[in-house]
Amino acid sequence: MSCPKCQGRSRRRWLLPAVVLAAVLLVTVAHAGEPAPLGLTDAVRLALARQPVLDAQAAAVDAAAATAVAAGQWPDPKLRVGLASLPLDTYSFTQEAMTQFTVAVSQTVPVAGKARLAGARGERASELARAQLEAVRRRVARDAALAWLAAWWPEASLDLVRRIGREWDGQLAWADVAYQTDKLAQDEVVAMRGQAQVNGDRQDDLARQARRGRAELARWLGEATAAPLADPADVPALPAPAELAARLDDHPELAALAGAVAVARAEVDLARAAYKPDLTFDVGYGLRGAERPDLISFGVAMDLPVFTANRQDRRLAAAEARVTQAEQTLADRRLGLRAELDAALADWQAAHRRIARFDQEILPLASQRVTSALNAYASDRATFGRVAEARRAELEARLGRLGQRVALARAQVQIDYLTQEVQP
């Protein structure tokens, strides 16, 4: 004859494997027919293809290039048409010999290479716009990748917690039957229900985070956000820190700020050239009629920069100050990027070490603890509370490992932003 206690032990031995098998089948059916998963690299590529900010910056590049050409040209000539020396008593064109119909053309000629300097300033501005476009591309790639990770992490965590939750639900159903037949103590049933509620609350919170992550990812991907997210690929080994630091010199933000320095220096050249006045040449033709000879006139006009203290001097001082500002901004950003790289490397190395610790120590120990608790529970040497605590610790360990995987990927995204060129 079989005793009730032995029947309880037998139930405990076959219950957990059956629940795990059912959970695997449910997951397989749930994922059938879904669209192809969207990986991190594909998400970044989609984001780069659909961002209005990139189109806006590309238009700024075109505008700067067109402006550079226009800036290097001479001013347009001026046409002046008039009537000179007309008597007011008769308004007769033939009464006075000096009455004439005049046509004049004038042309201002920039001196001291001002047109060339203005064109050079425009070219520097065009180069600045192109560097800014590349800087925007890198930011879009980084931000889209971080948004993808922010959406993937809660979904992956939720999937893990739900798998554990399905196991809890199966165990809870068995516990209700076991309690009604006096095979399980009430406090064990209460412990199981409490753990199930905690698990359900965590699922709700992770589901909220997943919805929020998807909403933020939609800003970058649009309708493509509806696709399931693939697991991120393993991160590659890092080059030497010195090599990564050397790549910072090619960062587009530094190129853009160097372009701003070049523009400021070109403006200094223009401010110095402003001390030399431009020349305006004028040629006119006077038509007098009535067999009187027509007249022709020539003239040259120029500004007289005699009050330079409050005009040219101030403009030159302002231009030189803007050069200093641009140079110091460049130096400050270079320091900032180096600090960001050092921080990202520290995060990468820490996450890499912690993942190794999870794989080699924490997860195996957590699994052994669960196995030990289940064996002790099956042989009536432990309460279900011990099993619940072991399960909870294993879940936390798995979630911790998942969190470090995301931390490693985030650090890699930041390192790529600082040191890798975005592929078109």
From TrEMBL:
SUPFAM superfamilies given in the database record: Outer membrane efflux proteins (OEP) (SSF56954)
InterPro entries documented for this protein: MdtP/NodT-like, OMP_efflux
- Provide the alphabetized UniProt keywords: Signal
The UniProt record lists the keyword Protein transport: no
Give start-end of the signal peptide: 1-32
Highest taxon, organism lineage = Bacteria
Annotated GO molecular function terms are: efflux transmembrane transporter activity
> Does the record carry Phosphoprotein as a key word?
no
Q: Which family does it belong to?
A: Belongs to the outer membrane factor (OMF) (TC 1.B.17) family.
Which PANTHER family does the protein's record reference? BLR4935 PROTEIN, OUTER MEMBRANE CATION EFFLUX PROTEIN
Name recorded for this polypeptide:
TolC family protein
